[in-house]
Specification:
60s Ribosomal Protein L30, Chain: A, 2 domains, mainly alpha, 20 helices, 2-methylcitrate dehydratase PrpD, single chain
Length: 459
């Protein structure tokens, strides 16, 4: 991998007209549909809709009709990305850094709603490119180990691709945008970790895409390229934020990430715990049969899961709970069900879940950690079993690749469709939701973007 500054790598990548395969166009449509479903779902709740629309619209307002009322591209992107991310049910990419590539899709809407005559092929291409930039950075450089937040990569990916769209792939404008984003610096991830967890983690991506677009627009004006901002030995990004280490891509930029994302197919749970939930569902009947005999519940997991979501302390709100490995496992064992409401303050089983998580012991399995970082595997393994009061152990349930993993993509697609139909159900009858899914998968990518909007608003 060429280790030149990322502004050159990104601008060179975005200046080329890459011909994406039918397989990757299908993957982009699949990611788009999953994201649209997340938007539908979040729009049925009062809090995210009021926050995303700055208190203009409340719950149960068709979210795609609202798009037509928002004029500025950065406000469209902010709105769309907040709804995408609010319930932590959108796609994921796990590597040295953790990422949610669909956080960027709002940026594509922000541009193309104001350029409806552009082809859908360019819209899908921009999604693939934003996924690739964010995912490539996540493979190369960890921000979380330094206490920084992953939405910095959202801002870089969205800002760079938006700059490419605005400038007709002008490399100088793209480089200037990237360097202006580097000059903004990185933000702390403290709001994702106890004791400071709060709703900022639901709106941080919307804030990031909005700022990325703003800097892309500013960077269209003639100015210095700030080409030394990454590697300046005194004032540069690498020196100030990374203690002299390099901000790196983990792979050459092409179209690999879109094929290798992780979908949250069945459960709205932080992805490091998805396989734990799947294993817990398999053990739920045994748990409820033997509950009085169980002394401990043991989770063997990978190191990043311990770092980000293993938390047995007081959980103060829904944002705390949906990032607690112990909470999601307890709920899955007791109820064999996980929904967005499982994490709410009003959840009927909250006391029972909180009591059970005190019995959970979490340990690192070194082999799980090794396979997590190996790019050819990228496992997200969890193994769960019970220790009984007589010292004996139950059967063990291990899941290495949860259903949203690329190794299980064919298995996942019917469930993704089911998830989409369920998310759209407050607005569309089942038949219409099924038709919407099929119409978007089959849409002619050479048609104008307005055709996608027509499908969303007419179905």
């Amino acid at each position: 991998m060429d280790q030149q500054n990322i502004d050159k790598i990104i601008s060179n990548y975005l200046s080329k007209n890459i011909l994406f395969s039918e397989e990757n166009i299908f993957a982009a449509k699949l990611s788009l549909l999953d994201t649209l479903g997340c938007v539908y779902n979040a729009s049925t709740y009062e809090e995210p809709m009021r926050f995303a629309t700055r208190d203009v619209y409340g719950a149960n307002t068709n979210p795609f009709q609202v798009l037509e009322d928002i004029k500025s591209s950065n406000e469209i992107a902010r709105y769309f990305s907040i709804l995408t991310r609010w319930f932590d049910y959108n796609d994921t990419f796990l590597a040295e850094e953790w990422a949610h590539p669909s956080d960027n899709i709002g940026t594509a809407f922000g541009y193309f709603i104001n350029h409806k005559e552009k082809n859908i092929s360019r819209f899908l291409q921009s999604i693939i490119q934003m996924y690739e930039i964010q995912g490539g950075l996540a493979l190369g450089t960890s921000l979380n180990k330094r206490g920084y937040d992953h939405v910095f990569y959202v801002k870089l990916a969205s800002g760079a691709v938006y700059s490419s769209l605005l400038s007709d792939q002008n490399t100088e404008s793209i480089s200037r945008t990237v360097n202006n984003i580097l000059q903004d610096g990185v933000n702390l991830r403290s709001y994702r970790q106890a004791p400071n967890v709060g709703k900022r983690k639901s709106w941080a991506a919307g804030d990031a895409v909005s700022r990325g677009i703003e800097l892309a627009e500013i960077s269209q004006f003639p100015d210095s390229a700030y080409e030394n901002i990454q590697n300046d030995k005194v004032w540069g990004f690498n020196k100030v934020f990374l203690d002299g280490d390099l901000l790196l891509f983990g792979k050459d930029l092409n179209d690999w990430i879109i094929q290798n994302i992780l979908y949250k197919v069945l459960y709205p749970a932080e992805f490091h715990g998805q396989s734990a939930v799947e294993a817990s569902f398999k053990l739920s009947d045994l748990f409820n049969e033997k509950q009085k005999e169980i002394e401990e519940i043991i989770i063997e997991t990978h190191e990043p899961a311990i770092r980000i979501i293993s938390n047995k302390k007081a959980l103060n709100n829904s944002s705390d709970r949906d990032h607690s490995l112990e909470y999601m496992v307890s709920a899955a064992l007791i109820f064999k069900e996980i929904t967005s409401d499982t994490y709410s303050d009003n959840f009927h089983g909250i006391d029972e879940v909180n009591a059970l998580r005190e019995k959970i012991k979490v340990f690192e399995n070194k082999e799980f950690t090794k396979n997590y970082y190996e790019i050819s595997k990228r496992h997200i393994s969890n193994e769960i079993y019970f220790k009984y009061k007589d010292g004996s152990l139950s059967k063990k349930e291990k899941v290495e690749t949860p259903i949203g993993h690329p190794d299980r993509r064919d298995e996942a697609i019917p469930f993704l469709k089911e998830k989409f139909v369920k998310n759209a159900s407050p607005y569309l009858k089942k038949e219409k939701a099924n038709n919407l899914w099929e119409n978007i998968l089959e849409i002619d990518i050479q048609s104008e973007f307005k055709e996608l909007l027509n499908i969303l608003n007419n179905d």
